[in-house]
Amino acid sequence: MSATSRTSLQGLWSSRTAFVLAVSGSAVGLGNLWKFPYIAGEYGGGAFVFFYLLCVFGIGLPMMVSEVMLGRRGRRNPIATMRLLGEEEASNHWWRLVGLTGVLSGFVILSFYSVVAGWSLEYVVQTARGSFTDSEPRAVAANFEALTGDWPRLILWHSIFMGMTVMIVANGVRDGLERAVRILMPLLLILLLILVSFAASTGELGQAMGFLFKPDFKQFSAEGALVALGHAFFTLSLGMGAVMAYGAYLPKDASITATSVAVVLVDTLVALLATLVVFPMVFAFGLDPAAGPGLVFETLPLAFGRMELGSMFGAFFFVVLATAALTSAIGLLEPAVAWLTETTRVPRSWATVGLGLVVWSLGLLTIFSFNMLADVRFWQGTLYNNLEHVTVNILLPLVGLAITVFASWVMCGNSSAEELDDDESPLAYTVWRFLARFVAPAGVAIVFLNAVTSSPGIS
Ligand code: PHE
Hints:
Helices cover 77% and strands 0% of the residues. It has 18 helices and no strands. The protein starts with 15 loop residues before the first helix and ends in a 6-residue tail after the last helix. The mean pLDDT is 90.
């Protein structure tokens, strides 16, 4: 069978828009709403944001094009796609290990991602109840600590979040994934815009804009550059097969470069909007922009607790966070489900429930590392710190690098041109090939070297 006539075994997205929504759904997640604001705050604002944008467009975009392209050409789960294309292009079936590593990392990432997503569900309830009204910083921090210590509660939220993820994925590409992103993504954007206008009217928008968009390069460090690069990569969900699996369901006539540009723009827009919700409030209430990972869970409730209608808007914010996490979680589970249904006769629903249970059990390790097993520490810290470091900081960059090298160096030019060139400008193809061959590998190599030599931290 020729490469271009292969068909997906899971069905196709109904349109190009559905694909853009699904990949944006996977890309927009805790990375945009929780992590980006706090690292932008920690690493000095404007200069960091500027460098981050360079990384997203110069490195993230060509990598995304590569992943979608391989996915659509292989039309299988990431493991089978890498084996198939490896055999076709290089007579080497070992490329499947790249797919396998990606799928496994996604699996492990989901186990802790779901736990953090569970925190946002808890905060929806707490803010809606008005638990933070007029509370003091110390009380809000203590509240967060109490939550991470309360393992039965963490298990409850983790189970609810995994349950929702499994329900969506079990229903398949069109009835599950596509229907979910069609509802959740517009909802997320609308809620976010409401929050931005709320933050703009009650907070210090001008000061926030100055902080975020007036680069002061004196504030910028080499470490900040590396964090920006690493984050560009995580936020676009690259290097674990989610984008490749979604690419396998992309109709043949959709332009890969145009859809990838759309996804990268949506992801960037959401990250910037998130900072425009967080920083006007941080400045209005005299909070510390460099508060670190607790920024969203420990400082925002303070701000919401002192505002008129704060409990409503606070609950809104955490609903947005949980929604964004949900559309990312389905992208983390899909590659493994596609793999199991394509290699065995297990029906999709059973495959999803079974894999969901494995992820759920793995998640207990993360939950217990905040309480019962908090004293078990080695290498990077707790069990959770280690799981996260190995998958996010080491495996994602490695797999991403391998995928990009495969697409731009190993795969023959005719094959990539066939996927990318047809309805697109030759210029787009040339730019992609240059960025994918030289710029992206160099960037990833730097992030990777940094990750293996640095202390715990990117999450
Ligand atoms: N991109 C998601 C976020 O920003 C995280 C993610 C990484 C999702 C890798 C899928 C795969 O939160």
